[in-house]
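Q: Can I borrow your eye for a moment on a structure tokenisation matter? Would you mind producing a protein record, from residues through to fold? Write it directly below this note and I will take it from there.
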Amino acid sequence: MSTTTLGTLAFRPLDPLEDAELLHGWVTHSKAAFWMMQEARLEDVERAYMEIAADEHQDALIGLHDGQPAFLMERYDPAHRELVGLYEPRPGDVGMHFLVAPTETPVHGFTRAVITAVMRRLFDDPSTARVVVEPDVHNTAVHALNAAVGFVPEREILKPEKTALLSFCTRAQFERAVAA
């Protein structure tokens, strides 16, 4: 849990059945185009998050803003999911995705506060040495957010569903970025 000038951000485990309707609204919204679930049905969302919940190499959390669901965080082991064969994973590498819920009244700085809270949550685990992300090369908004919390792009990689910008952030890079 972290408290910012924008309120309190916390996490709870995602329940695939209880949260499917909420998540369906988020992942099919036009602002979530890079999530690549625009055409998903409610059952598709349930199934996707049931698979994540059952997988020992990944998990998902609902992010809360002042106690209300406001964002999604997915954590995965890149040696077993998403990036297998696309780079050489190191011990302590953790993959991450995040999605902020769509809103009619955006709050300036909220998404940056969310990615900062997500990164803190990942680095709260002492075994996490480096966070790995692979956003779409065209998602310039997330590239800027990633840079703001210390990510350094390494190279473009070709995934089955997209061309991605493979980027890394060590604990030290994150700490320097958020201290600035």
Notes: The longest helix spans residues 110-123. The CA atoms of residues 22 and 89 lie 33 Å apart. The first strand starts at residue 2 and ends at 4.
